[in-house]
Design a protein that fits this description.
This protein is mainly α. It has three helices and no strands. Keywords: Membrane, Transmembrane, Transmembrane helix.
């Protein structure tokens, strides 16, 4: 019975290997774009506060800058990709062991 589960797990290993590699590539490419956008949004938010613009707009710019910064959504996406890689390693260890 154990051998059947190992055979069933092999296509999932292949799919996860390709998916994780693709997601890491897309994440690395988009990471620097999001970081530059986060810096620009944060600078615009501070500029709105300094020039006396609407406070709500400044807060919105700073919040959007934080969300796309490396501490916001990028960290969540990286955590998700790492969990998929961990699942892939677990399946590989199951098939080999």
């Amino acid at each position: 019975m154990k051998i059947i589960f190992k055979i069933i797990a092999i296509p999932f290993i292949i799919a996860l290997s390709i998916t994780v590699a693709f997601l890491y590539f897309i994440f690395c490419v988009s990471e620097w774009i999001c970081t530059v956008a986060a810096v620009i949004l944060a600078a615009l938010g501070v500029l709105i506060f300094v020039t006396g613009g609407p406070t709500l707009n400044g807060v919105a710019m700073l919040l959007l800058g934080f969300l796309i910064s490396p501490l916001g959504l990028q960290a969540v996406i990286e955590w998700f990709i790492d969990r998929l890689a961990d699942l892939n390693c677990f399946l590989k260890d199951y098939v080999i062991g």
